[in-house]
Write a structure and sequence with these properties.
The chain has 825 residues and is an alpha+beta fold. It is 31% helix and 26% strand.
Length: 825
């Protein structure tokens, strides 16, 4: 309890001392005290009776300073610190000010000395504010200077006497503008006036370029109103300190963060270069150009610096250019050739691999270099060889330029130039670090895009080489097709299609898709397309063909299993739609392995529904495929497509199919034009998947071009069959084919009678070729063999094979058909 009482007593005593009044002492010319105020008693404990008539030096603890009191206080500082003696023997730290007295005729009857305790608030506050390292100032409501401290005077390069009574705008006109007007910040002077008007304090960061400086400063400032006892705003005060290093460091971090998000979003070389050009404008520079080697644009390996011959002009391609004044700049298109002459900065950067900074003026020209008057120097240091003074860039309208070689993984990709022209402040060493960091981030992204472009080009080349280079001639349908790979942000997929002529004037229309992208998808697509063509040559029905294809995919998947950690992508997840159209019967047969069913549209625009469901995708195994058969009106439009045509991020498959149906109903002059219309209407601008489309318009073979006869299973019927065939060929005006037709009909009918089972039927078809077919109910397939010299048989099929351009066997539900075809002149 006693300790608490003592502490409170000490606090009260100290408060009393803090509030002690000013002592006033009158000293005559002889240094004797001639007057003493009540404040002296309160401050030092001496009364007037104790001090009047005594030397003033008796109040001092130490010997008097030189000239005390006559010369004390003379000079720029009218006050002085002196320890005084208290009546109780203690020492009072005081601030003493001496003022001379003037009497009649200019006589000096002495001095008035004022004494204040050195801890009293007005005194210590004045000293603290005056000696503060921060810039402090006080202004009246009209923004006229009332007081500034020494630091503020150094910042604005004016003394207090020079600015007192002047308006803020007169002394500091540069504070009436912001360095970055696009940020919509108010000028600092307007902020001062706003605080004076509203009485609301404000805190802000002000970026400006002092007059005579080529460097922009960032100041953290606070502005507050100064009120009288009645609460009225009598003045405005502010303080600030230079936080340029911290501010610009944060701006660089923000720009790097933006670059991390904004550069490399697409696997496209030119797109990434454009992202690099846009990111630092306008926050860092006014103009960025990105020049790349042509090999980089093509996805190839770029040349090394060692391949540059001395004195050789280096030709690059302008991949990107972005400026704050794009409305007035000439917009160079992408991949515009740009030549860098020997000795140019860009050529030296490419040859040495080092960055270069060019400045339009020498350091120090136009003001104190890189920092405002009286401010501390930027702590960054230039690397050797930088910066270079190049007056020629001023002719280009530039104040500075940083040229950085674009390198990634040891490969030299090109060069980037960061230029300033509307921003008057010069580059610093930290700006060079930022430019190199931005370039390094972009270089990795560009190199990734280059490598992806190379793989994508390889996959696309492989895929296009495996797709039909031209659709075969046949009379069953008119066909047109389109294939478009995924956009630049996606790898090449496994979409494919095919048109395969079959026996009997029929044609197979095929479309398929392999889940996945890249080289494996393209290679898998090639394997499937080859397998389908091989199975189609056997002339299997669609459901049987898909069953064999499913088994093949299963075998291929097992063969592709790797013993290592890398598991290559097989054809697992592949889909296929196999259809066959017969122009003689107008029958359309189809089977699907997980693929969307075709759209069938008649000439009047009505959609023919397909009463079928897609089967399981290929590679599942063990599940059956079902074939569906339809009879189509002549002129029906068939649309076979992959899911890339109907599915996108904006719509699902059902919506896409409905939209495709609507587009296909539009009249078009040709299938080629209709293909273009469909692809333009269905595919989004930024597609992520391949898209394949196959359109076919059906024809019906003229009944007069088909002739068939039932043949009795008797060898005596062979001459009659020959005669029927020759008469029909002559009726078609194909007399030149009569001899061969007679021979092949004789051989095929004889074999059917001898080895087959009734019923036997002979059919002739006049299409692009003359087709002869003999059908019977036996499932036994004939075999071509070479007869020995004394064999009586075995030469029939060999003769057929030699006399015709093709022959084969196809199995049906009721037996088999042996066919052969002759090319018509």
């Amino acid at each position: 309890m006693g300790r608490a009482v003592r502490t409170e007593a000490w606090r009260v005593e100290m408060a009393g001392k803090q509030d002690a009044p000013t002592a006033v002492v009158v000293v005559d010319p002889d240094g004797m005290v001639s007057g003493w105020s009540e404040g002296g008693r309160l401050l030092l404990g001496w009364t007037a009776q104790d001090t009047v008539g005594r030397p003033v030096t008796d109040l001092l603890v130490d010997p008097p300073p030189p000239g005390f009191p006559e010369g004390y206080g003379v000079g720029p500082d009218p006050t002085g610190y002196i320890p005084l003696r208290h009546r109780d023997g203690s020492t009072v730290d005081a601030v003493v000010t001496a003022h001379p007295l003037f009497g009649p005729a200019g006589r000096a009857p002495g001095h008035v000395v004022t004494v204040q305790r050195w801890g009293r608030r007005p005194v210590i506050a004045d000293r603290a504010f005056e000696q503060s390292p921060f810039a402090l100032g006080v202004y009246d409501p009209e923004l006229r200077f009332l007081w500034i401290n020494a630091s503020s005077g150094r910042v604005i390069a004016h003394s207090e006497e020079q600015v007192l009574g002047k308006k803020y705008r007169e002394v500091l006109p540069e504070f009436d503008r912001e360095l970055f007007p696009e940020r919509d910040d108010k000028p600092y002077t307007d902020k001062l006036a706003e605080v004076a008007r509203t009485g609301e304090p404000a805190r802000l960061i002000t970026v400006f370029r002092p007059l005579g400086s080529n460097y922009a400063n960032a100041w953290a400032t606070s502005i507050w109103p100064v009120r009288d006892g009645e609460g009225r705003v009598r003045a405005v005060a502010n303080w600030g300190f230079d936080m340029s290093a911290e501010y610009w460091a944060r701006q660089r971090l923000l720009l790097l963060n933006e670059a991390t998000r904004g550069i490399g979003r697409t696997l496209d070389v030119i797109g990434t270069a454009q992202e690099l050009a846009r990111t630092p404008v306008p926050g860092f520079v006014d103009l960025v150009t990105v020049d790349l080697f042509d090999e980089v644009l093509r996805g190839e390996e770029p040349p090394s610096a060692s391949t540059f011959a001395p004195g050789e002009t280096i030709v690059l391609s302008r991949a990107a250019r972005h400026s704050v004044r794009e409305d007035t700049d000439r917009a160079d298109g992408p991949t515009t050739p740009v030549s860098h002459t020997p000795g140019s900065v860009a050529a030296r950067c490419l040859a040495t691999g080092r960055s270069t900074v060019e400045l339009a003026a020498e350091p120090g020209q136009g003001g104190e270099w890189a920092f405002g008057p009286g401010l501390a120097a930027d702590p960054a240091h230039w690397p050797p060889g930088n910066p270079l003074t190049d007056g020629s860039i001023a002719a280009e309208g530039l104040t500075g330029r940083i040229t950085v070689p674009l390198r990634a993984r040891g490969a030299l990709l090109g060069v980037v130039a960061f230029s300033r022209r509307d921003r008057p402040e010069a580059f610093t060493a930290d700006d060079l670090i930022l430019a190199e960091e931005l370039t390094a981030k972009a270089a990795v992204a560009i190199d990734n895009a280059r490598r992806y472009s190379r793989e994508r080009t390889t996959a696309l080349t492989l895929q296009r080489s495996l797709l039909p280079q031209g659709l075969p001639n046949q009379e069953a349908v008119d066909v047109a097709s389109r294939y478009l790979p995924g956009g630049t942000g996606a790898e090449v997929g496994g979409d494919w299609f095919d048109v395969i002529p079959l026996s009997g004037a029929r044609v197979a229309l095929v479309v398929g898709d392999i889940v996945g992208h890249g080289l494996h998808a393209s290679a898998g697509m090639g394997r499937l397309r080859t397998a389908v063509r091989t199975l189609a040559d056997v002339d299997l029905p669609p459901d049987e063909l898909l069953t064999h294809l499913d088994d093949l995919v299963l075998h291929l998947a097992s063969d592709l299993q790797s013993a290592g950690h890398f598991q290559p992508t097989g054809e697992s997840g592949a889909t296929c739609l196999y259809t066959v159209y017969d122009p003689v019967s107008r029958r359309f047969t189809l089977a699907s392995a997980g693929h969307p069913l075709p759209l069938i549209i008649s000439l009047d625009g009505t959609r023919t529904p397909v009463p079928a469901q897609p089967g399981p995708p290929l590679g599942i195994g063990g599940l059956p495929f079902e074939a569906t058969e339809l009879e189509l009106p002549e002129g029906s439009l068939l649309a076979l497509y992959t899911d890339g045509v109907v599915q996108s991020r904006e719509r699902d498959v059902d919506e896409g199919i409905a939209e495709l149906q609507r587009v296909l109903n539009h009249s078009a002059t040709s299938l080629e034009a209709l293909c273009d219309t469909v692809m333009d209407a269905m595919l989004p601008a930024r597609r992520t998947d391949d898209a394949a489309l196959l359109l076919a318009r059906t024809h019906a073979l003229d009944p007069h071009h088909v002739a068939d006869w039932d043949v009795e299973p008797d060898p005596s019927q062979v001459p009659r069959a020959r005669k029927f065939a020759v008469d029909q060929v002559d009726a078609w005006g194909l007399e030149e084919a009569s001899f061969v037709t007679e021979l092949v009909v004789s051989e095929l009918v004889t074999n059917a009678i001898r080895y087959g089972e009734p019923p036997i039927r002979l059919r002739l078809i006049r299409d692009t070729s003359l087709i002869c077919e003999v059908s019977d109910a036996s499932n036994t397939a004939p075999h071509l063999r070479r007869a020995r010299a004394f064999d009586e048989g075995g030469r029939g099929l060999l003769l057929v094979a030699q006399l015709t351009q093709g022959w084969g066997t196809r199995h049906t539900t009721n037996g088999k058909t042996i066919w052969c075809a002759q090319t018509l002149p």
